[in-house]
Amino acid sequence: MDSGTNRKFGRTGLGLTLVKKLVEMHNGKYGLKVNLVKGVDLHLEIQENRID
Hints:
This protein is α+β, with helices and mostly antiparallel strands. It is 33% helix and 27% strand. A two-stranded antiparallel sheet has the order 1-2. It is elongated, with a radius of gyration of 15 Å.
């Protein structure tokens, strides 16, 4: 991951990969909606599990 943008802003590109893995570990759902003008919307759905 050595694109110009990554070098310029110090990004690794691992953020969405980590989010995806965490959501999957919790049997959740995720999605991306790309808008070329506004950017990207990230949608997450994770169920809450309480231990009483």
